[in-house]
Amino acid sequence: MIKITFPDNTVKEYPVGSTSLDIAKSISPRLAQDVLAATVNGQVWDLTRPITTDSTLKLHKWDDAEGKHAFWHSSAHLMAEALEAIYPGIKLAIGPSIENGFYYDVDLEGHQIIEAELAKIEEKMLELARTKSPFVRTEVSKDEALKTYTEKGDPYKVELIQDLTDGTITFYTQGNFTDLCRGPHLPDTSSIKAVKLTNIAGAYWRGNEKNKMLTRIYGITFPQKKLLDEYLVMLEEAKKRDHRKLGKELELFTFSQRVGQGLPLWLPKGAELRSRLEDFLKKIQKKYGYQQVITPHIGQKDLYVTSGHYAKYGKDSFQPIHTPDETEEFLLKPMNCPHHCEIYKAKPRSYKDLPLRLAEFGTVYRYEQSGELHGLTRVRGFTQDDAHLFCRPDQLKDEFMKVIDIVLYIFKTLDFKDYTAQISLRDKVNREKYIGTEENWEKAEQAIIEAAAEKGLNTVVEYGEAAFYGPKLDFMVKDAIGRKWQLGTIQVDYNLPERFDLEYIGSDDKRHRPIMIHRAPFGSMERFVAVLLEHTSGKFPLWLTPEQVVILPISEKYNEYAENVLNLLNNSDIRAVLDDRNEKIGKKIRDNELKRIPYLLVVGEKEAETQTVAVRKQGEGDKGSMTIEQFASLIKAEVENQIAG
Questions:
Q1: Is there a catalytic annotation at residue 386?
Q2: Of 114, 285, 482, 503, which has fewest CB within 10 angstroms of its CB?
Q3: 3-class DSSP state for residue 325?
Q4: What is the pLDDT of residue 376?
Q5: Residues of the chain by 3-state class (helix, strand, coil), percent to 5
Q6: Domains (range + CATH), the chain
Q7: What span, in angstroms and rounded, lies between the C-alpha atoms of 399 and 513?
Q8: Active-site residue, 337 included
Q9: Is 388 known to be catalytic?
């Protein structure tokens, strides 16, 4: 018998070799129907994999990320099987699950798949799913794996296998299809009841532009048709809210091939919006004792070698910048923190100087593959609302909790109500990718766990999601249509202070090492604006929107009065514009509502005589007439309520 420990710490005994599915059946037949995967001793397994030793066990259903991962990973294999059946001779590359669904990269050997053919592939997938083919896991030697795919003529699989270590290679087979894969997968194909292939794109093999361009087919599947229908409705809403579409309509930003891919150009309205966000955060930071700094866009290569960023980003980033002096070599900065470490070192520090809080809206550069670029959410140059706090050990938890307060205030002001704090820790097994001592990592991880608990945050723990230099608290926010975004991060770092030999003189007159906190409540200005655009559908809160009011004269006769209203509002620090086009008032109202301007003021003969305005509010319609002073007071009160709220 073996002892199985469940998440509530109850322990039960089962025969050696029992599977997670056997255990689920022993608990409840309904649970066995719903469960999709299991975490055994911290690793996600197939439900049908035998457990041979005492273990911890957590069962995953559809609502769990691990359950969806197994479901969509299995669906990628199902799609590959369908593709091979319909298009014999194609070459398969990789097919992982992703946040929403899955994809498979294939070499179509000269054939092209068009959108109209996706329905045929979907039908074949459902046909294969109904066969209830089990997913069978087998362990194979490297020689056997190479032989299998060399004989099949799949060069991409052969290349992948060559990079693997013998003794770690597994195949999964369902029906007549076998794939190189480490899993996990569903017990069989029958739970895949609804399929939608969503997109066809190009993707370079292994993300390298020097390699062959493959065809990437995206899809998503569900255990019920109803869930697919709901997803398709959400997808249509997401298209309407696409920040690239809204950014163009609202004249916020643009891109230019001459400037370069992934390098956004902020238009006047977008620059105003971004500036207002920066001012909002600067005001909060001043209250919390932050000091603004400015650092260059480049730095000597040695700076990033010292920090560890060159080893992390150098190979996949922009190439070094050379000057006429052969001894000089610079890099576009990938992060602001090395520069802030040098500011800390600019003069001796005492324990009385700490905490030192340095903040900067610093632009950084990372080379993203062209196929990975996406509007403002994935760019090559972006501005972080960065700050680095240098503190003593006795100040760490208090400083960390103050940063949490800043993040929560921002979320409240911008109406992000549904969020989870993700405690991102090291991988339990693979420690090689992290720098620093085990002792420092333990202290840093514990500080984050305690701070999150004291603030009463709704938390999840994710192993393997830490930064290479330290653990972090990532805020995962759900937007208005239920999509999850990572906004805001706080990280504890014992490593950079050591790498840069940062010190302070303690009350004991001895040298001590400060602890560093990295934090960015917005994350990056570009990505934050994109998420905010899609969350609000372009209807920004009144305090933030570039244009708060538009004045609409009924005819040219009232343009002069409309201009007087415009001047009075602008003099009251209300952002107003005038639409004096020679158009009917109905068209003016419709056009300006499409621009998401919160307030529309209609002026005609009655308003000119009584020195009033007829007020319409976006989404609420007619709000009646009022004097200009009354309207200005209304606007100011609404703004104050939003900021204080």
A1: yes
A2: 114
A3: coil
A4: 95
A5: 40, 30, 35
A6: 2-61 (3.10.20.30), 66-236 (3.30.980.10), 253-536 (3.30.930.10), 549-644 (3.40.50.800)
A7: 16
A8: yes
A9: yes
